[in-house]
Amino acid sequence: MKKIIVPIDFSKYSEYALEAAAILAKKNNAEIFALHMLEMSDAILTASNDGPKPKMLFFLKLAQQKFDEFLSKDYLQGIKVTPIVKHSKVFSEVSEVAEEHHADLIVMGSHGVSGFTEVFVGSNTEKVVRHSKLPVLVIKQKPSNLTFETVIFPSDFTEKSVDVYKRVLETLGETSNVHLLYVNVPGENFKSTAEMEQNVASFLMKAEGNMNNLNKVHYVSDYSIQQGIMNFSNLFGADLIVMPTHGRKGLAHFFEGSISEDLANRANLPVMTFKI
């Protein structure tokens, strides 16, 4: 993890994300790219030389000044921080900027249960969390140490989740203790004990080539997948929840609908998403 993108809107939630990125940057000797998306109208962006170009330059200079002040944090000392100001109406370019700079991670702030109303609004949240090719870490509270020692990886143990699981282990490193979780819910996706154990055995053999981590697999029953994940993670003392997403086709079999985004929004714990 050498390059981290942090979208900034000058709210306290984006400051939480920036501080979290600083903690990770110091641990990994990484560089932070602080990204501010300056919203402008089409009239300003497409203006000719005789049009309102001076207004655009004024807003860009004002944003840069405010940006410099925002980045004057003690916790950023000793970290290479590259500020980026983009003029765009929405936050849809975040993933593109991250890929352009070959970033390894996007860290963003969120209100929590009230929704992504500060940094990412409405469908723009889905574009980043759901469609980003890079892992996305969602922070909702002021971070402490971000050790990520105990990590919960909810899974349906299908073949599609194997690659994500491998990438999770590679990204988090040996300092993280990753536990796998299956939430059994009423309905057509309900699994018997034998079915779950068979799926787990096949998953571990494909992912690790052995059954050594069988003791790190947990099964819970609940009325919804989201509630099962949150209840178990809180009781287990998890530091991080890692979720797979499935891009434009929606979420994989286990994560139908918007479970990944919903959990990132509702859970008090940090949530990191990986695209399948």
Account of the 3D structure:
- It is a single chain.
- The longest helix is centred in the N-terminal third of the chain and has 18 residues, at 53-70.
- The chain folds into two domains: 3-139, 3-Layer(aba) Sandwich (Rossmann fold), CATH 3.40.50.620; 150-275, 3-Layer(aba) Sandwich (Rossmann fold), CATH 3.40.50.620.
- Residues 41-45, 117-123 and 249-257 have low confidence and may be disordered.
- The protein has 276 residues and is of the alpha/beta class.
- The chain has a ten-stranded mixed β-sheet, sandwiched between helices.
- Helix 6 packs across helix 7 (193-208).
- The chain has nine helices and ten strands.
Content of β-strand: 15-25%
Unreliable stretches covering 5 or more consecutive residues:
41-45, 117-123, 249-257
Given the helix and strand composition, which structural class is it? alpha/beta
Q: Summarize model confidence as the mean pLDDT.
A: 82
Number of strands: 10
- The CATH topology name of the largest domain reads Rossmann fold
SSE succession: EHEHHEHEHEEHEHEHEHE
Number of helices: 9
Strand order of the main beta sheet, please?
3-2-1-4-5-10-9-6-7-8
Give the class-level CATH name of the largest domain.
Answer: Alpha Beta
* Main beta-sheet strand count, sense and barrel state: 10 strands, mixed
Pfam families: Usp
Organism: Gelidibacter gilvus
Protein name: Universal stress protein
Family: Belongs to the universal stress protein A family.
